[in-house]
Amino acid sequence: MTDETQDYVAWLLDRSMLMKARERARLYGGQSRLWAFPYAESRGRSASEMASVWFTAYPASLVTRPGQSVLAALGQHDLWHALSVLGVQGMHVGPTKEAGGLRGREKTPTIDGHFDRIGLDTDEEFGTSAEFSDISRMASVFSGIVIDDVIPSHTGKGADFRLAEMAYGDFPGLYHMVEIREDDWSLLPDVLEGRDSVNLGPVVVDALHEKGYIVGQLQRVIFLEPGVKDTDWSATAPVTGVDGKVRRWVYLHYFKEGQPALNWLDPSFAAQQLVIGDALHSLDVMGARGLRLDANGFLGIERRAGGPAWSESHPLSITGNQIIAGMVRKAGGFSFQELNLTVDDIAAMSRGGADLSYDFITRPAVQHALATGDTEFLRLMLRSVHQHGIDPASLIHAMQNHDEMTLELVHFWTTHATTPFFFKGQTMPGAMLREQIREIMYERLSGEHAPYNLRFVTNGIACTTASLAAAVLGLRDMDALTEDDIERIRKLHLLLVMFNALQPGVFAISGWDIVGALTLPPDEVASLMADGDTRWINRGAYDLMDLDPEATASSQGLPRARALYGSLREQLEQHDSFASRVRRVLTVRQATGLPGGHQRPIPDVIAPGLLVMLHDLPAGRGVQITALNFSAEPIDEQLILENVSAGPVVDLLNETLEGDVGEDGVLQIHLDPYEGLCMKVVGVAPHPTF
After folding, report:
1. pTM for this entry
2. To 10 degrees, what angle do helices 363-372 and 465-472 make?
3. pLDDT tens digit sequence for 123-161
4. What domains sit in the chain, N to C, each tagged with a CATH number?
5. Contact residues for 663 (Cβ-Cβ < 8 A; gap 6+)
6. Please, what is the Cα angle at 524 between 518 and 526, to 5 degrees?
């Protein structure tokens, strides 16, 4: 090894996440604190008791005061006071640790919104690690908590990947990467000037598979974009190793080319060390109480004869998640998974794995209900939660997040492609049901009918909640919106809030939701969408606290989105604003103890647009009824309430009597278009809980 190479390797080792994780591990040996908490079983209800309403920040989109860091803005007393008034108890800050890559000694920018992590410390773009810790301290003033992120499936191309390319130590075992013999380099395409790798086409992947190098093509290509990402495999340019040998590697990346996948079953067990070290750093150094396990369903990959590689529903993913989640619980925290897989997989990975799961089960279904005015598919998905033994109180029912409105509907594409489902009066296989749902959603919520929403590769639609509502209402020109149009959008938006908030579990709301953000014009983020990632249009900048009303962009350079509702500060001063209406919903939610309630089986209804959910409230507080009208027509219907004793029914939001449950269990309700009711039956018969 030359002196120059030795110096560079030392520089990389000083920045390596794996090395820092190993250093942290030495602090825990022989100490008693990791035996103080139960850890073997998931504890969803205990996790939601810490904080059942979350604000989800996307740091790159936050408008701050001139010269103020994002993390300093998120730790402000005024912001936490306003969020507390709204009903928020926890803040999911979002990915703020160092991300991107390294080329030589030069840092390259993030290619996936800081989900391509290369360091354990806070990225200086957002502020300092001390400022992150200050957020945790401010949260405690308002009896709140802070939630951070761990990414178990991949990293960016930082120091760890560069050391792996140079075949240093056990770093190659950190990733799914394979050295290709020089006499087979002819199989690999050349790497273009200015790049460090090239995506491989299916023919090349098949050839490498036949030669025994790699496991081959995977079950699906996430973020498939012809000419940009054709498969999940890429090849590096020639790299000189620490031993002087020149190598080319082929490596796996479930997501973008700059996000090499970690190898969770290598004899070095380096991936486990890195991820656990990152998690403990967030809990013990940064002051977080909870951690999101991002993309945690892709930890296992295995060769299969006669078909694509086994890359989903793999037992190693379940085992890996149990290790991470168990370690987090051992350290006194909780975790949640943002896992867009089949309902079966979400259920399986919740047993001993993450304490909470993002509700990808009903999220596309409730958007379908709004788009069509029909709740049949939504009721089907709600029932699937019960059928697979998932406690609704262990789910995070979230509004918009940083991603697209997903329409993958993986449940009906992989495991249940041939499973029969009854829908619209006929029985059809899951794959056919999926295509019907997707076709309707794409047609009604994007394209010619809603040019401000864009398709996101093959996965869904890039939109905000407000632009989704606008599309449902047939509003094509966002520049021509009237006050009446905005009020109609607000009404649909609030209906989605009621669906997500008026059931057990965690309710999460984003800054985009609070201000009523619209999508950005594509030309304003054209450079960010060069690789086909249209999600940037739904990540516009927002100013929650009027910190810089004249700002045209966030401190990270994201253009400011048009906000239909105004800032949180402004809205809380208005009795009938969107935020004030949300506040009333959350106040009732907390007062009734609904987050800890038990959901009964989803009842049948007559009106296509009606959804009814019944919940047994804790400590014998009664039965709560959520009734929502997803259609543009009024609904008058008699509900048949089983195992509910006769008595008056209170409209909790308006503090009025809604009617009475008769001796026969009948309750007559009336709902205006897109209206919701939160009701409580006074006096109920005992009922077995979920």
Report:
1. 0.92
2. 30
3. 999 999 999 999 999 999 999 999 999 999 999 999 999
4. 53-88+90-143+393-404+503-596 (3.20.20.80), 598-681 (2.60.40.1180)
5. 646
6. 120
